[in-house]
Write a structure and sequence with these properties.
This protein is mainly α and about 80 residues long. The protein has one domain. The protein has three helices and no strands. It is about 85% helix and about 0% strand.
């Protein structure tokens, strides 16, 4: 019984951490790269403040999801 529970717990933690990584990629890496390389004239259409607020929001979401994944792993049974 505890083996199945542990595997399901690890699977949930992996899903949460994957969601955190996706938040980082979609919300931070992609917009910053687009801004640096001026994709679709992004530097003139997006203010640095808007970029910073968006990045901060996505970073907070990624951190929360990662911490939830770590907390989930504490539920593993010996």
């Amino acid at each position: 019984m505890s083996l199945v529970f542990n595997e399901q717990t690890k699977l949930l933690a992996t899903a949460l951490n994957t969601a955190a990584t996706s938040c980082f990629t979609v919300g931070i890496a992609t917009p910053v790269a687009g801004y640096i390389y001026n994709v679709s004239n992004l530097q003139t259409t997006l203010s640095p403040w808007s970029l910073g607020l968006g990045v901060a929001g996505w970073l907070i979401a990624a951190i929360i999801l990662h911490l939830l994944a770590r907390r989930t792993l504490k539920e593993l049974k010996p």
